[in-house]
Amino acid sequence: MTQQNRKRRADEASQSYPPAKRHHADDKLSIKSSPYSNFFPSPAFWDNLSKVSLTRWALREHNRRNNNNPPKAAVPAAHTTGLARLARHGGPDLCDLRGYPEPNVNHVMASNRSSASGSRRTRSTPSTQATSLSTKSGKSSAYGPQFEQHLTDYGVYLEGYEYPDNRLTPEPGNHPDISAPRPSLSPSLFDQSKFRDFKRKDARATFENNVMTTVIPIICGDADIPNQQNVLFTELKPVTSTYDDVVRPKPDFFDGTHIGDLDGKVRDPKGDMYPLIIPTKHPTVPVAPNFFLEAKAPRGAADVLKRQACYDGAYGARAMYALQNYGEEEPGFDGNAYTYSSTYHAGHLQLYTHHVTAPTGPGGRPEYHMIKVKGFDMTSDRDAFVQGATVFRNARDLAQEHRNQFIQAANTRARQPRPETRLCQGADTQGSAVPQPSSTGGNWDWSDDYESGTI
C-alpha cells in the first residue's frame, strides 16, 4: 500500500468517526431549552428531602457529588491462590472498585465495515450519551417527583395526598355553587358550530403556546377581570424554603386586581404585605392573584400540571389569608377556600380550590390544601364544554368577589387612625402563635421568618 493510499484511508476514518465533543464539568449541570435554564436545586434541597425518588435530577446530583469527592481506590490484596481455585470461589474481590468514577476516555474507532458501506454518521461514545442525557431537562424536571416531595415536607399538599397518620384531608368550610348557568353560553350565543370551532382549534394545538392563544380564550369568554399570562413572580417570598431549592412560580394565566385598588399602606414596598401580595415590580401586572390556570399541549405531562397548579394555589391562598387578616391583632384560620386553580391538558379541564389551615402542632407551619372540585372532557360534546366553561367562568367571578372583599376590608383597616400592627402568618420559626411588637410600637420583626421561608 502506498503512502498516499494510507493517508487517504486515515482521512476517511477520521471523517466517519470524529472525536466526541469535549464537555466541561459545568455543562452537566446546565438545563437547556427551558424557562428555568439557570435553575438547579441546591445541595441543601436534597439533604432536606424526607425521601429522595430515583429521578434524573437525583442521579445528576449523585453524579455531581461523586465527581466533586471521588472515592480513593483501595489497594487490592494480593492473591496467591491458583487461578482455578480463585475462579471456583467467585473470582477476586472487586469491592474496592465500587463508586470509582468512570474514566473520561474518548474512543476513536476505525471500522472496515463502515468504510466499505460509505457511512459518514457520527457515533456517540458512552460518555457523550451520558452527558446528553443529563443536559436534556426542562420545566417538567423542575416540577418533578422530587418537587412534590419538597412541597409535602413544607406542608403544601396536592389533591389526593394521603397522610402517614391516616388523617383525612381537610375539606374547605365553604362549598359555593359555581354551576349556575351563564347567558353567554346559552344555545343561541354558543351553538353547535362554535363548539365545533373550539374542538377544531383544540385538535390543531400542537404546542402550549397554541393552547394558550387559541383554546383558552374561548373557555375564558369576555370577562372583564385583570389577568396576565406567563409572568415570573419575582417579588413574592417563597412559600416553602428558599428559591435556591425551588423555582419561582410562573403561572400560564392568573387573575388579580389593579395595584391602584390597594391602599398605599397595604402595597407599600417597605411594608409587610408587599412580598405576600405583589408578584412583580411591573405596575400593570395584576396583584393579589387568587385564580390560576396551567395548560400544556397534548404531549405535556398531566402530573406536572397538577404540581404547578398546587404550587400556584399555595401562593394565592397565602395572599388571601394575608389580606383577610391584615391589621388584626389575633388573626385566625377559618378553613375556607378563597383561591382557585385549574389545569387544561388534551381537552380535559380540572378545577381545584386551595385553602390554608392552622399548624397541627407547636412550632409547626401553616398547611395548604388542594381539593378537586370538578373535571370535564371539554371536547366530547357541546354540553360538556358548556358545563366546564360555566364552572370555570363562575370560579373566576367568585375568586374576584373574595379578592375584592378582602382588599376593601384591608383598605378600611389601613385608613383607620390606630397603631399599625403586623400580620401573623400562623406560627413563626420559633413556634410562637403571635409575634411580639417591637419596643418602638411599630411593625413586627419577621426577618427570621422571611429567611427561613415560613411565610
UniProtKB/TrEMBL annotation:
Q: Locate the compositionally biased regions of type Acidic residues.
A: 446-455
Positions the record marks as coiled coil are none
Mark out the compositionally biased spans (Polar residues): 427-442
Specify the protein name: DUF7924 domain-containing protein
Q: Which residues form the DUF7924 domain?
A: 287-409
Pfam families given for it?
A: DUF7924
| Stretches for region Disordered | 1-32, 105-145, 163-186, 412-455
Where composition is biased (Low complexity), the residues are 110-132
